[in-house]
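Example record used in the benchmark description.
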Amino acid sequence: MKVLVIEDSLAMGKALSEILIRQGHQVTWLTGVKTLEPLVGTVHGGNDLSLNFDDFDFLIEDGELKGSAYQGVEIVNHASALLHCIGFSSQPEFNQKMVNNGAVFGAKKPVLLVALEAGVLKLEEAVAQQKEISLLLADYDQTMPKNPQFSQPWQRVEQRLRELMKEEFGI
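Model output (structure tokens):
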């Protein structure tokens, strides 16, 4: 599947893109959006890229984009008529607003990363099973860190995010 990721954090965007690529998806990652029609976004490094939403099967959208002319809710509201959208924010209210504006479901960070890494969430099944996945991800938000099924995927995601945050912030 062709997946458009819009995420302003280097660590989250790169980690999510890596997981999706390992699963066989083609990924385009933007760090912000300048215009919606036509879609002009910014790639990591600051260059602009002109795209069409309908060239993609899925959009995974961060709720709050620093420095972007458009935020997650506006982007999902526009794009959800053209492709399937997933809200992806550490703030539950942003995820809910994106769902209210057309996202298939919303997932907290890093729960979505761990669910993808563990293989319990497959984009190919996300639309057909959106209610089940939504409930599952809400439950995982509470139980995932303690669930032995997720200990190795959680550790891999956590380790990769640490490496990328060192790169991004020098921490």
